Amino acid sequence: MKLQKISLVIFSMLSGVILTLAWPERGFPGLLFIGLVPMLAMEDYISRHREKFIKFSVLFYSYPGFFLWNLLTTWWIANSTLVGAVMAIVLNSLFMAIIFQAFHWSKKHLRFSFVSYLALVCYWIAFEYLHLNWDLNWPWLNLGNGFAAYYKWVQWYEYTGAFGGTLWVLGGNILVFMFIKKIQNSKFKIQNSKSEGKIQSSIFIFQYSIFIFLWLATPLLFSYYIYLTYKEENNPVAFVVVQPNIDPYSEQYSLPPAAVIDRIMRLATPNLTANTNFLVAPESAIQEEMWENAISSFTSIRILKAINVSYPGLNMLIGGSTFYQFQPGEPLPRTARKFTDTDNHYNAYNAAIMFNSQDSLQLYHKSKLTPGVEILPSFGGFKWLEKYAIDLGGTVGSLGMDSVRKVYTTVNTVKVGPAICYESIFGEFFARFVKNGAQIMIIITNDGWWGYTAGHRQHFSFAHLRAIETRRCIARSANTGISALIDQRGDAHQQTAYWVPAVIAGSLNASNKITFYVEYGDYIARIMTCMGGLLFITAIGMAIGRRYFGL
User: What is the mean pLDDT of residues 200-216?
Assistant: First the structure.
């Protein structure tokens, strides 16, 4: 029995290894379709020998595999915060193990195999959906993201979003696992049956093989058809994208604002022309403490407005840290901070600032905040956690947010939407900028915290998926890489190297098209979450009926 239990742990960890080898941006996503098969085999064994195991065995045996996957794919978080890395890896692994335990429990009471595995699909997707929509959000390992580097496989995300990929992966794993079980059972039957039974078993295996092939191949073929036939409308907009390479550990919070802007402009100016529509600089480039109540008075703003005079047709987008002091009587959000020497309150923001010659200054405040760094749980009684927020050198504690996905009005060109860093991994959130009128998207980010690891490469690869889901071109400006111009098929152009000062000059085509996904968002997740809730309630009802009424 001890040897069997060790084997179950090995099966669990095998899943962790396979999922790691499948993950972007250097993995092969075809492995995603078998990554959970060993885990399913482990659960199936426990399910068939329940009398030998304690109640939460599936949770305990699945945890090592999920922990290994989380560790090997997101260990790089430790480059900026060891505590944050431990929390993310430990908790995310636990959440995944809980989903498998819930599936195992439901399988016992739902009785029918198909319904049981449907419950697994629903529970997992509900978990991923939750991970997009609460304060402890960490959707980095949502299964649909696994195709980010092989984005030509999932051009149909314009209809389904990344949850279509999650559904594809989960369905593939369940079909492969059931196929292996059928083969094992058929071998036993063949050995103990007449020739007629052998023929029937062989036909069944052949039919099942065709079904699996169609499940895997049909989306692939459809995707390549979309990719090869997709044509952008010619509506060029000229961009200059700057990658200033300001070291977040030694320079970002110590360089004078004028020096930062000078570094950006020295890169940008040789590429600016009278026809340039946008100059884009990265997240948090300006670290002057600018108060929005009188923002035009600050050095950075005055310098940038002066530059704008020389380029009247230019729209400049740059990231910075801003603050707002609430006026007496204004409602105070939960993120409001109290001044130490007065009874007044203020908010701190991670902002994207748009300048142009119309003497207007438009602000968007980052709204999908990084857990542990920019936001801590808002659940009742958790305000005390603010003191333990992870300090990366800027403003510490929960930041203020915008409730609307703002779209910038511009001079002589199209409307654009700004997504700041972490926001680019949230599909439906990102799509709302487009639904609100953005004809081109801009991502500004600072990936230097993670060092030369998979972290910045994975983050960059997710932009392919956002371009496909929305069919919007994306200008991506990263402080320390990777910057690029990304077209509506997800192809990246003029991709820069990491940790190298760089500038990109080129054009992107604007679009007014609204994709099915932009219109309806994460409808797959909402449907599956509702179904999962019904299945879980059904399992509870059947468990009660069996225990108390002998049903």
Answer: 87
Task: Output the DSSP codes for 187-236.
Answer: HHHHHTS-HHHHHHHHHHHHHHHHHHHHHHHHHHHHHHHHHHH------E
Q: Where in the chain are the domains? A: 2-229+523-549, 236-327+335-520
The secondary element (H helix, E strand) that includes residue 260 is helix 257-268
Number of Cβ within 10 Å of residue 51's Cβ equals: 5
pTM: 0.94
Say how far apart CA 286 and CA 394 lie, in whole Å: 11
DSSP β-bridge partners for residue 243: 502
E runs forming strands in 244-360 = 278-280, 286-291, 315-325, 337-338, 345-355
Q: Which residues make beta-bridge pairs with 361?
A: 355
Tens-digit pLDDT profile for residues 410-426: 999 999 999 999 999 99
CB-based contacts of 206: which residues, under 8 Å, 6+ apart? none
The tokens 């580097």 sit on which residue?
149
The helix or strand, by DSSP H or E, that contains position 541, with its residue range, turns out to be: helix 523-549
Lowest model confidence (mean pLDDT) among 250-254, 275-279, 500-504: 250-254
The pLDDT-based confidence of 397 (bands split at 50, 70, 90) is low
Who contacts 300 (Cβ-Cβ below 8 Å, separation ≥6)? 257, 258, 260, 261, 286, 288, 290, 320
SS3 content of the chain, % helix, strand, coil (to 5): 55, 15, 30
End-to-end CA distance of the chain: give it in Å, rounded.
Answer: 33
Q: Is the CB of residue 516 less than 8 Å from the CB of residue 159?
A: yes
Q: How far apart are CA 517 and CA 468, in angstroms?
A: 10
Q: If residue 262 lies in a helix (H) or strand (E), which one and from where to where?
A: helix 257-268
C-alpha span between 33 and 42 (Å, rounded): 17
Answer yes or no: is pLDDT of 184 > 90: no
Alpha carbon distance 240, 47 (integer Å)? 59
Q: Is the peptide bond before 482 cis (omega within 30 degrees of 0)?
A: yes
338 φ, ψ (degrees, to nearest 5): -95, 135
Q: Does CATH number 3.60.110.10 belong to domain 236-327+335-520? A: yes
Q: Is the CB of residue 480 less than 8 Å from the CB of residue 248?
A: yes
Residues 228 and 221 sit within 8 Å (Cβ to Cβ): no
User: How far is Cα 364 from Cα 415, in angstroms, rounded to an integer?
Assistant: 14
What are the tens digits of pLDDT across the range 455-474?
Answer: 999 999 999 999 999 999 99
DSSP state of 496: P
